[in-house]
Amino acid sequence: MKETLAKIVLRLEEIRKEIHQNPELSQHEFNTAKRIKTYLKTYSVGTVSTVANSGVLVTFDSGAAGQSILLRADIDALPIKEINDFKHKSKTSGVSHKCGHDGHAAIMLGVAELLSKYPLKKGKVVLLFQPAEEIGIGAESVLNDPHFQKLQFDFVFALHNIPGIEKNKIIIKENIFNANVKSMIIKLQGKTAHAAEPEKGQNPAMAIADILHYIEKETNNNPQQEDFFLITPVHINLGEIAYGISAGAGELHLTLRSWDLGLFEKKCSNLEKFIKRTCEKYTLGFQISWTQVFYANKNNPAAIDFIRLAAKTNKFEIHEMSHSFKWGEDFGLFTQKFKGAMFGLGAGENTPALHNPDYDFPDEIISTGVQQFFQIIQEINKN
């Protein structure tokens, strides 16, 4: 199989770079899906279908009774301007693959090739190329797709490349792999006044200051602790650049994250109550809305065992995480519905961080990702 995989990887590097050159934002991955389908038509025998408008499903069914397994790769890019100058740099201004979804897609295409060359003896495997992960609605759109709702799975798996950890290490975290995350938009409505007479209006500035002070007190940015809870201000807007006017409106955007869902929901509720009291104090109208909701990946113990067995069979080094990752990942919706797990794949100690403008997925780890997924299938089918 190693000789076969070596030939496959050369193709996978090419398609990875092609996807990287032509990035598409969440819910607009139509050309990316087309490239994936074209590749699958040439190198795979799986049954290909569309899911969630711009996603792709590939089904391999042995026809014999056995476990049903879902493997997922995400395919959307980010609204980040790339600063790299290599040949495969993004051709789309202000959009680039800065989370490695081009590499995740290439890995899953490699799995499709191996499943075509080494057919299943029992059970079923479905490969999902999922759209819109970056904005937290891709998993939900797939799960709500009528075609997908007909499917049931015994196990679901996904990986994410992890810069900062040695290349090709398999990264495992028991229980919670990454945080619950969602974003809050707070709109404050007061009344403008002359800057010389602010008392004749309602300026939201002090309300924003009180909210910022509150979230500083509520934040426990210690990922080693079970009550980890982090609120990050990401955008603030107040009034206009007009020096004779006391501002009459303001807006504050926050992201909130925590390991524990119960704590998370309680803290979010408390924040809403505080905002209401604060606006009453300063005689302000307000609106609160939530967006980009990510649920934590809850790694199932049996699924983790299969990941470990696959890594050991492949002689891949395992890196055990002492605490969860603080970022959000919408695969959590799958692990809440099905038994499953997300694992990490080391992308290099000196690789730029995810979402950095100079990040690029390292091609050297594609083979490891393909082998790891393929071996997970073999370990499950040994039972």
Task: List strands and helices in order, with pairings.
Blueprint: H1 2-21, H2 30-43, E1 47-51, E2 55-61, E3 68-74, H3 101-117, E4 124-130, H4 138-143, H5 146-149, E5 155-162, E6 170-172, E7 175-176, E8 180-189, E9 193-194, H6 205-218, E10 229-238, E11 245-246, E12 249-258, H7 261-281, E13 285-294, E14 298-299, H8 301-313, E15 318-320, H9 332-337, E16 340-346, H10 366-381
Parallel strand pairs: 3-4, 3-5, 5-16, 6-15
Antiparallel strand pairs: 1-2, 2-4, 6-16, 7-14, 8-12, 8-13, 9-11, 10-12
Helix pairs in contact: 1-3, 2-3, 3-10, 6-7, 8-10
Helix/strand-derived category reads alpha/beta
Main β sheet profile: 8 strands, mixed
**Average residue-wise pLDDT:** 97
H and E string: HHEEEHEHHEEEEEHEEEHEEHEHEH
What radius of gyration results from the CA coordinates? 23 Å
CATH superfamily of the largest domain: Zn peptidases
CATH class of the largest domain: Alpha Beta
Look up the CATH topology of the largest domain. Aminopeptidase
Apparent shape: elongated
Number of strands: 16
Uncertain residue segments:
none
Residues in helix, %: 25-40%
Number of helices: 10
CATH-defined architecture of the largest domain: 3-Layer(aba) Sandwich
Strand portion: 15-25%
